[in-house]
Amino acid sequence: MVEFKFTAQKLNGQTISGTVTSGTVAEGKKKIQRLAEKNKLKLSNIQRKSTYVYRVRKGKEKPIRGEQKAFSKKEVVDALARLGYKILSVNKKLLNFQHKPPNADIVTFVKISAELLEQKLSYGEILTLLINDTQNATLRNTLKEISNDLRKGADSEATFLKYQHVFGKFTAYMLGLASKSGNMAEIYRATAKFLERRQEFRKNLRSALITPMVTLFVLFLAVLFYVGYIFPETAKLFVRFGIELPPMTAFTLDISDFLVANPILIGIVTFLPPLLLWQYSRTKKGRLMFDQYIIKMPILGSLIHKTLIEVFCRVFYTLYHGSAESIEPIRIASEATGNKYFEERIKTVAIPLMLKKGVGVTDAFEASGVFTETALSRIHSGEESGTIKNTALQLANYYESETVYRLKNLIEIIQVVIAMVIMVIMIALTLVSAETATVRPKTPGVNY
């Protein structure tokens, strides 16, 4: 995220200033231009917030080095001078690459914050403690800036959303919302649980899907190298002497000749479809179609689908306060799933039915087509009894237990299948090699 500070004049000559946050530099400048045109302002200055590296000293102490984000060098100099430091140098940081902190660090921050909030520590104290103990530079600097903004009286929701590129959109929204809620500890605890479950699910999904795919791909390349390069060196030696090759050896040599003669075709067939599919999945339409297929694919789709419902119910439970305020929790919960198809069905089908036609939660969810029969049955019971909030939590816990157990079993089955595939391929290569080893040149004058 990029932050800009602008100075402008009204038609009456009054000078005003403000700040704007955006995803890119170009987008930020366009936003300021639109704001100026709308309010008939004459822009006089636009400054981008940058990182400055300073070196200061207090009295006869050792010089101190540090970094500070500001809109200008003067801001940094004035701030340090007010603190009683002698300025030795202040320079804009030329290379300011900030990588997103690891998910584990963000989970740790949220979880520790929840525990300290439950111990009745003030949020300012919590931020100070975590700033001193956080090792990741990006997260540490982000917490410093959040602490400074909150001390100046900035809106907590707007402050955290400025750093959604660090925390993620949903996490930033939840943390900003927590400060306005009546129970910060509960929202932080729920957010930590959500992040832990997402991290655990992605880890298990890699084990169940991505790792086997990588294993098979590497095995495919190894077989390709053997058949296309190593095997022909031996087999063609027999061909030169006019020796008749056994069936498997001859067939493998034909495949080898085809691979050697058509390397470009093989490369296109191997790499182009995955590349095109990946590029298409990055488009809005492609992402929607990809996310729809994910929850409908055999075996694994059911687990992913139930995990999405679990996430939805867990977030809904955290934000829901009564039937009169159910729309916003439903919208946010759909965004938290991270599945565009699930989110789109909730926003374009379920929510409009509730707002325009007054349809109940269960009927609206059923019309969206993204909830299982079990989930709809439980939600219906909760809606009728007035305990939909607790029902959502029960449903989330139920699906968590089921998906964790089934995913572990699936990982074990996939590992067995991959081991069998590797075994079959290795046996096939061994048989071909063994057959090739039995080939003998004909001795003149000897009949076989």
- The Cα radius of gyration reads 31 Å
* Percent of residues in β-strands: 5-15%
Q: Which class best fits the helix and strand makeup?
A: mainly alpha
Gross morphology: extended
Unreliable stretches covering 5 or more consecutive residues: none
Encode the helix/strand succession as letters: EEHEEEHEHHHHHHHHHHHHHHHH
Q: What number is the mean pLDDT?
A: 84
Walk me through the structure.
This protein has about 450 residues and is mostly helical. Helices cover about 70% and strands about 10% of the residues. It contains 18 helices and 6 strands. It has helices at about 25-40, 75-80, 105-120, 125-135, 135-150, 155-160, 165, 170-180, 185-240, 245-260, 265-280, 285-295, 300-320, 325-335, 340-355, 360-370, 375-385, 390-435; strands at about 1-10, 15-20, 40-50, 50-55, 65-70, 85-90. The strands form 2 sheets. It has a 3-stranded antiparallel β-sheet with strand order 2-1-3, with helices on one face. A 3-stranded antiparallel β-sheet has the order 5-4-6, with helices on one face. Strand 4 (about 50-55) and strand 5 (about 65-70) form a beta hairpin. Helix 9 (about 185-240) packs across helix 10 and helix 13 (about 300-320) packs antiparallel against helix 18. The longest helix has about 55 residues, at about 185-240. The chain is extended and about 105 Å long. The model has no long low-confidence stretch (mean pLDDT about 85).
What structural keywords apply?
448 residues, three-stranded antiparallel beta sheet, 69% helix, 10% strand
